[in-house]
Amino acid sequence: MTQSTEQGTIWLTQDAYDKLRAELENLKGPVRQEVIERISAARDEGDLKENGGYHAARDEQGKVEGRIRQLEDMLQRAQVGETPADDGTVSPGMKVTYKFVGDDDDEAETFLLGAREIEDSVDGLKVYSPQSPLGTAIIGARVGETVAYEAPNGKTLEVVIVDATPFTG
Hints:
The protein has helices spanning 14-43, 52-77, 133-138; strands at residues 2-6, 9-13, 78-81, 94-100, 109-113, 126-128, 146-150, 156-166.
C-alpha cells in the first residue's frame, strides 16, 4: 500500500515494497533483455523506415524504460511502514467498505485507501487516495460512524463506514 506522507515520500507496506521491487527486477532483467533482442532481430530485417516490428519493439522499450524509472523513483522515496492496526479505525493501507447514507438501495462499496500507483497490483480493487475528498473525510473514522464530505461536483455526501480492515494483498 502506498500513501504520500510528505512531499516526495511514499509510504509502503513491506508487502507492497517487495512486489514493486520484484516488478523492477523483472523489468530490468528478462523483460528488458527480451525487448532488446526483438529490436535487434527487427533491425536485422533491413529497412527500418517501414519495419513495423522494429517500431513496435522501440515503443515497448520506451514503455519499459519509463516504468523502470517510475519504480526506481518510488522505491527510492519509499518509507516502509507497518501494516495498520486492525482496530476498525480508517487509516491508509486499509480496505474500507462504506455505504451512502439515506440510499436504501445502495450497495456497500469496498476500496483500498492508498496511492493510485499500485492500483494495477490489487486485483480489481478500487484505490482511493488518502488526499481524495472521500479519503480525507474518512481517515480516523471508526466502523459504524457516519462522515460527510464534499464531492468534486460540489454536493455534500454522507457515508457510513461499514468495515475497515488492513489490506494484506
